[in-house]
Amino acid sequence: MSQETPAARNVPALLAALHAEKRSCAVLVSGTPGGVIHVRDGMVTGMETPGAPGVEVLLLRSRRITEDDWTAARATGTDPARLALELVAQGLLGAAELEITGRAALFDAAFALALTTPDGWEMTEPRPLLDTGAAIPPDRLVTENTRRMRLLSNERGATARFARDRPEPAPAARDPRQTARLSPRHQAILTVADGRRTPRDIAFALGRGLFAVMLDLRDLLSLGLLQPPSPIPAGRPSTAPRTPAAPPTAAPRPSPTPLPRRKR
Questions:
Q1: For 45, phi and psi rounded to 5 degrees?
Q2: What is the pTM of this model?
Q3: Does residue 158 sit in helix, strand or coil?
Q4: Alpha carbon distance 243, 246 (integer Å)
Q5: β-strand partners of 37
Q6: Helix/strand/coil for 43
Q7: Fewer Cβ within 10 Å of end Cβ, the chain: N or C?
Q8: Total Cβ atoms within 10 A of residue 83
């Protein structure tokens, strides 16, 4: 069921109004990437968006928790809040570690949503959420997003374009002398940055935050170990057939030779 939405010019202004009213709801953000913002008593407790890895991806892809342990914890019930309790009760995560992971995922999702302008938003009743214990005031999210944008670029549009790039290894990346001193996280990025993956794809593949991955990509670009993907030359003829090939026509069979007629 939709709720009455306070008048707001953008999502940060909406969250500020919800914080002032101490509202509890879910904000459905439409667009690319879009997502769901969870608000409890005016505090942002979580965000879910395909633009950045969530808590589950961060824990599983980083192998902090195994698939079997995660499945066993989920088997206790479908309530996401219960899942958080089980993760701690089974000793898979400490309560503080779970909250830190939840906060990291929340800030990263807010950053991903800030890279584009949403098509719109709608308020609904609160939705189930993996309760990590994170609760952030909206103005803190705005401050952190501004800081992250400035670290990557002074121009918001440039950061958004960078988030859509698909970097590929430069020739120097094949020289062991150039890569020997790289940190493990930089080396891991080099293994998956193949010219087809965006920073978001790399973040999901490695189980790392989008912003952290973009910082490391910037470092590798400045070192000359990564480069933007090679553009497709203009006017290059397509090698694929534009229309399906017609099935081969069977060769006509020769007409049978008539048998000689017997004379009486």
A1: -105, -10
A2: 0.82
A3: helix
A4: 9
A5: 27, 47
A6: strand
A7: C
A8: 20
